[in-house]
Design goal:
The chain is an alpha/beta fold. The chain has a single domain, classed as Vaccinia Virus protein VP39 (Rossmann fold), CATH 3.40.50. It starts with a helix and ends with a strand. This is 25S rRNA.
């Protein structure tokens, strides 16, 4: 019996030592994938997964975005297929920008994520918060982060289970990170979006250029919105359209601390 306990104790020490030797960003990346696997386990195992995914890809090829996102059956498959790479990308992008890490260490901040219904931004930001807490860069009582996910379709079937898994896996207590959903259309800007931007400490616009920049008038409307509603000293982060070849290079980012004269 004593020999068995010694073996188990030695095994735990070895596992702990091995875990400590893995770079922190690699551990966080694996955690991201584990969370997605738990959240979408039923989706990955569906008999219809490959068929639905093929239909989604066909619609993207034809630039028929509404077909993808207005069909509720597509949403879980879309998130399961595209969220892993994007969440990893967002996490690595965000952790390279000191201004964002500094913001996350402050109390009572709001992050407003445009076109973020699929949950990639939610997981990428939550992962960085978890990393900062584990590094003791921020005290848990100082986190108080509100993450607002804006999109024009209802993603609750995806976001609610993902949020629950994030809270559980990262051991986030109630009020530690507050998740909110903003059902509004970025291409038809209304008071809800204006309010979201005006109250945000950080606004993200991640890989939504295909939809937004298809119409020059919409681009000018969006720029006008930012000029009028983004508050002095707040942050705006925009990344280009997603590609499997994208590198985590700050040159590909535009981050602005908006200052009005």
């Amino acid at each position: 019996m004593k020999q068995g306990k010694k073996i188990q104790s030695s095994k735990r020490k070895i596992e702990k030592s091995l875990a400590a030797s893995i770079p922190e960003e690699i551990r966080e990346e694996q955690k991201i994938l584990d969370i997605l696997q738990k959240s979408f386990s039923g989706v990955f195992g569906s008999d219809e997964f490959e068929l639905v995914l093929r239909n989604i890809k066909k619609a993207f090829y034809e630039r028929d975005f509404n077909t993808v996102f207005t069909n509720s059956e597509n949403l879980p498959v879309y998130s399961a297929a595209y969220a892993p790479r994007r969440a990893l990308c967002y996490y690595n992008l965000l952790r390279q920008i000191p201004e964002i890490s500094n913001l996350l260490c402050l109390k009572n901040k709001t992050i407003y994520c445009l076109g973020a219904g699929a949950g990639s931004e939610l997981l990428g930001i939550s992962s960085l918060i978890n990393e900062l807490v584990e590094q003791n860069s921020v005290k848990k009582e100082n986190v108080n982060t509100s993450i607002v996910l804006q999109d024009y379709v209802d993603w609750n079937s995806v976001l609610i289970p993902l949020q629950e898994t994030i809270m559980s896996e990262y051991n986030f207590s109630a009020g530690f990170v507050d998740f909110k959903h903003d059902l509004s259309n970025l291409l038809e800007i209304d008071a809800q979006i204006e309010t979201g931007i005006s109250k945000a400490d950080l606004v993200t616009c991640m890989f939504v250029f295909n939809e937004l920049f298809a119409d020059k008038a919409k681009v000018m409307q969006f720029i006008s919105l930012l000029t009028n509603k983004l508050q002095p000293g707040k942050l705006f982060l925009v990344t280009p359209t997603f590609s499997i070849t994208i590198q985590y290079d700050p040159i590909l980012l535009l981050i602005l601390s908006y200052i009005k004269n």
